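Troubleshooting: if your tokenizer reports a length mismatch, compare against these two reference records.
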Amino acid sequence: IVGRSYLEPYTVKTMRYLIPALQDFSEMLKGRQVAPAELYELARKSLHFVGYEGQSMIAVSGLDMAAWDALAKAAGMPLCVLLGGTVGPVKAYNSNGLWLQPPEQLGSDAIALRDEGGFAALKIRLGRDRPRDDIAAIDAVRSAVGDGVELMADFNQGLNLGEALQRCHMLDDQGLAWIEEPIVYDNLDGYTQLTAEIDTPIQIGENFYGPRALHAALQRQACNFVMPDFMRIGGVTGWLRAAAIAGAWGTPMSTHLYPEVAAHVMRVTETAHWLEWQDWADPILQKPYEVRDGLFHIPDVPGIGLEWNEDAVSRYLADA
């Protein structure tokens, strides 16, 4: 039985630090029973003096997702079933495009993204030099796909607090599903102010390093929605612990990247909201997961369902 997972740390140079940590886990955990909660704690404690966030948590998350895949395979169950749920579809939005192109280019892109999987929701990126160009971008997408398609907006931490207050107020009459990360992720005081003053829901969470970071944000009333990323929240184990906190607060919880893993845990998440779909892993998968009618469909196979296309893996291999 082989448990599989992948990580998306964004830059090639990150592998110089991440791969040795994973190899150290391999030596440390050899011969141990596959018990994800125990492996999670052992791996974290082994990096205690490096720190619990950043690269340490990313490495632990990769290990954790693979351990859960192996455990579910050993049990002969899809991961969502092992976790107490059932195999079924998960509501998804398309996050594969609508970057900071000129507004006039976005209409045709929006139609293609909608039709790619029958999506009823799309994500647009904002943060152009002129605020009115962001409004024009939203108008272009709305004109192309209609008001029946929900639109999420992401600033990717591109604004300072003053700019965010101005721009988010300008967006309050645009009917957006949420405004995501307008300012740097760790400025919780700023997010508390934005959440209190802006009518549109504020979405944060892809930079929560572990469940306690989610708890701190909710305590500060720094957002309306949360969307943890699996390589930062702590893989499946970290997600389950974070989901319990979000459930206690009644806070809608969406996913950030890793749709194959995300779909399984969303089936057992109390306040499950939206799955972020992107196809970044598809080139190395034997069989990419199916999306139709705006729903992400979990394959009814043991584990997560990740099987590598080994030829593609070899073809894209980079030196660390």
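Reference record two:
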Amino acid sequence: MARDGREKRQVLLSFDTEEFDVPREQGVEIAIDESMAVSVEGITRVLDLLKAQDVTATFFCTLTFATHAPDVMRRIVAEGHEVASHGVDHTTPRTTDPAVSKEGLERLLGNPVSGYRQPRMFPVDDADLERLGYRYNSSLHPTFIPGRYMNLDVPRTPFYKGRLLEIPASVTPWLRAPVFWLACHHYPQWLYRRLCRRTLRHDGQFVIYFHPWEFVDIGATKRWKIPYTVRHNCGDEMLRRLERLIATFKAMDARFVTYNQFTDEYEESNNPAAGV
């Protein structure tokens, strides 16, 4: 990306805004009202923090969440954040989700939806996204996590695939160590923020995502059987960690931009046709 004579550092902060379905991964059923209450509480706390910090973000929303929380959706838009698609529901993704979710979100919001992220960052048909009018796809985690991702042979930083801009989650430049939400929960904070600073300085942009339920004490409800790896440092502590991370990036004079803003600026400096 062009530097305009000086280094440009951009932070693409995002939240996978879905109905809380972690208990289902442990074989525990949870009613939609209960799962939505957790997510709405978490996203409300996040929005309050972002407003206090004067930071904009992108909210990748499932159509299920958006349908059940219209007031939250209106607040997201009113406070200057971007809404992108995260499929229809988080538990059972289908090949029709990009089309159905885009149409549904645009109908609910009255605004175009430009971006997509597949639940759990799993693969999605890029040609289908381009055909449907999406501008970018952020469903790629270019790292190795046993049982989840094996993406060591793909670019670490944004690139065009056809006319669709791929925006991978950030990983460290050399070892491709993940610095996503789970790393923020478990790495020593001095180390985590150091890795984030190094990645931002090296790449010029930092792409990070969280979930609303991370900012709620989900471990307090024992019947959900939330594993330690997920519940560790959830709730108030995670809110503090996000606040400190934002302060770290601000100290580097980084700009917080939505994914759509980033796509606009990337297009100004790169020819989409070159990837065709």
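Descriptive notes for reference record two:
- The first strand starts at residue 10 and ends at 17.
- The first helix runs from residue 22 to 25.
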